[in-house]
Amino acid sequence: MAVMLAILCCCRVALASNEYSESVGWPGTLILVGGGEVPDEVPQRIRAVAGDDGIVVILADAAARPLNAAESATKWLNEQGIQSVKTIGEVTVPEKRTEFLESLDDAKAVWICGGQQTRLVAAWEGTDLEKRLQRLLQRGGVIGGTSAGAAVMSQVMIASGKDDPEVRRGWDLLPDAIVDQHFTQRMRIGRLQKAVSQHSGRLGLGIDEDTAVVVTGRQMEIIGPGSATVVLPGCSYREEEISVLKSGERADLTQLRRATRHRSTACDPGQSSVGVPVVESGALVIVGGGAMPKDIVDRFVELAGGSAARIVVLPTAVPREATELDVPGFLKRAEVESVVVLPQRGPSEVESADFRQALEQATGIWFGGGRQWHFVDAYENTRAVELFQAVLKRGGVIGGSSAGATIQGEFMVRGHPLGNTVMMAEGYERGFAFLPATAIDQHFTQRQRQPDLLRVAFRHRGLLGLGIDEGTAVVVRGSSAEVIGLHAAHFVKVAPLQEIQDEDQLPTTVDESSRFYTTVPSGESIDLTQFATQVTR
After folding, report:
1. Cβ–Cβ < 8 Å for 276, 528
2. Is residue 271 part of a domain?
3. How far apart are CA 236 and CA 270, in angstroms?
């Protein structure tokens, strides 16, 4: 039978002019300075975007004397080699104000001076300044501001007050955040905590004087001698969390936003919402990365329908620009009816008819390798996961290797966007739950990951920890887990964990970890129902 290979290419859907993408952030850059001296690197960042002749617009209406503030800011920028500066401040003539607003459409950068943020917001109330600023970010520009110019960048804006903050509406440039400035110097941790506790789904960002938080895309970087403080609200299953980022350190804004949003739902990701680790219909082929031995390929194809298989490949565990649109070699060589690659990601693309029809006809799905958090960004809050589950319900198979293995569990390990050494990355702890109540790790013994998975199982006693070696697959049908391929699979035991009273007592070496695992070699099977009685502390 001839093999039909197809690629349903991404529909490059243009974002609305002021639409923020959670998965990538703004294309442009935000620079929030906590007051005091502006770090020397800030004008360099502005110039890198604006170039030698790009227009930089100064917004000075937060100052008591806007024209004086604008003059000082202009001089400062000129001294840094930025010559094309345009001022907005104290414009009371409607025609002139319209002219200045229109100038933003040609600007490469905006600098917002300090002062009083309520004065700044009031000066531009009733105009479309906020939308024009969002459009500037969308086309890759830079918006920077100090003190009031930083505080105004969050939609929930602290206007005044020490212990009981007065909150007004600012500009929605840094989504889901509440910004506070002069942070350590004026001891503002208390008021930021209170503002966060009063506004569900918002994280706090406090910035010290002489310090800047630079947000490029979805990453935050700290520059200057001080620090930035991140406040995540408490909830029923997690206490309030305060973390301090020092100069040179980075954070992922989307991860922090997702963590905050999950806390507002009070739905503990460490508690299974699906049930015991059983696959009610269809089958899973969960591969620990590395080689794809013939017996694993043959089993996946067999479960998908053999020569009549219609397989969908999802390569979206890598960034969009690195997405490989070619059919994987092991499937090119398979004698099957069709293999379709679906690189679509995000709601607008995933809702396309081509994406839906391919999955409705699929007898098998293959999740490629990369980083598992990309799968979450690609498909969460879309119909995709429902379509994936439907393949199982009609008796099909879901397979995947490495990242494509971990995403099949209900709890997703190693999901932090900044690196795969963080086992429990808040905001990215939910997998697609094809295998319920399970946390799946890969490259297991080859990368000596045995101690890592024990920490997940210790904190979340209702989960089954499963580590899979490279070149090895766990094939799950019903409650039966069969191991095939080159090496073994490793299941965390319940009893030894119950003897541990404190996380610090968990083993830190491979040898010490061995007694906590049931190791099942290739060619053998295990019944998963024996893990259905996992207990919580």
Report:
1. yes
2. no
3. 13
One domain, residues 290 and 346: yes
- Contact (Cβ atoms closer than 8 angstroms) between residue 121 and residue 157: yes
Distance CA 363, CA 393 (A): 10
Q: Domain end: 225, 242, 265, which one?
A: 265
Low-confidence spans in the chain with pLDDT less than 50? 1-3, 7-17, 535-537
Amino acid occupying residue 29: T
Cα(289)–Cα(263) distance, integer angstroms? 32
Residue positions counted in the chain = 537
Round to whole Å and give the CA distance between 514 and 180: 48
Q: Could you tell me the residue range of the domain that residue 338 belongs to?
A: 279-531
Total number of domains in the chain? 2
Interval 305-361: pLDDT, tens: 999 999 999 999 999 888 888 899 999 999 899 999 999 999 989 999 999 999 999
The CATH number covering residue 241 comes to 3.40.50.880
Whether 486 contacts 293, CB under 8 Å: yes
pTM of the complete model beyond 0.90: yes
Same domain assignment for residues 297 and 259: no
Q: 114, 89, 151: which is closest to 37 by C-alpha?
A: 114
Under DSSP, is residue 525 helix (H, G, I), strand (E, B) or coil? strand
Instruction: Say if 11 falls within a structural domain.
Output: no
Domain co-membership, 219 together with 288: no
Distance separating alpha carbons of residues 166 and 169, to the nearest angstrom: 10
Query: What pLDDT is attached to residue 2?
Result: 39
Picking from 240, 265, 290, the residue at the C-terminal end of a domain is: 265
